[in-house]
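Extended Data, panel c. Modelled sequence:
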Amino acid sequence: MPELPEVETVRRGLEPVMTGQRITRVEQRRPDLRFPFPSRFQERLEGQSILSLGRRAKYLLVDLGSGDVLIMHLGMSGRFTIIDPAHEQTPGVFHHQAGGSSVHDHVVFHLESGARIIYNDPRRFGFMDLVPRASLESCRHFKSMGIEPLGNELDGDRIRALFEDKKAPLKAALLDQSLIAGLGNIYVCEALYRSGLSPKRRAGTLSSKRSAMKDKTDDLAQIIRDVLTEAVDAGGSSLRDFAQTDGSLGYFQHRFRVYDREGEPCLTKACAGTIKRLVQSGRSTFYCPKCQK
């Protein structure tokens, strides 16, 4: 499933083509994706101006002139392709190219500029919804969602407060979307490795008043932001189906220090450890048992 950096990469690719444009026509080629499309989906979109493109956790938000917000989630395999005769997009150079069968092109947005935005989703785990802007934060998608990891809200003090008395493993707590929204498996593994914190450690231990643990928690907040920012700059990670809006695959997987490196040597200087894999809550966790405590 695309994680926050992949969704932010897609947002940045769509933004210059869509913002300020009017949607002239919408092709809805099936009645549902993961969920049914909202009532009068095409009618409510056609003729509307796109005011801005935003992101909340792993969701794309298209703010419309009507006062509605188009919420889009990529699911497991969703991707957008821009067909724009006015611009030849070359946002980066990557090792692989992605393709998708047109039989899975489920929604096409036609813009006043002549550009088309095609949503392709072979597995159909993505979805689209329309919600009034005034009730966005209280809607079913966001009402129980935690803070944004790339915003100013995330710091050591906030992590210590969120994790106080938590008995869950640290990795599980970081993946809890009601605490911190948008963190996914890959980047949590990477952040914990760089922080020197074990994924098995009880989350509540980060709330210790010891100065050494306070420093660790401060570092963890900054490292989370650093890892996510690096991944966005690299265009995300091309695992399974993710691709950017021009079809290119992301490049951050070539910077993994721990994820998917089971049995390989730890990259921390002066550490002779070996990367191990364990399963937590049904997901693979990669870590170095020697330098992550």
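Confidence is low (pLDDT under 50) at residues 88-99, 236-245, 247-254. This feature is highlighted in the accompanying rendering.
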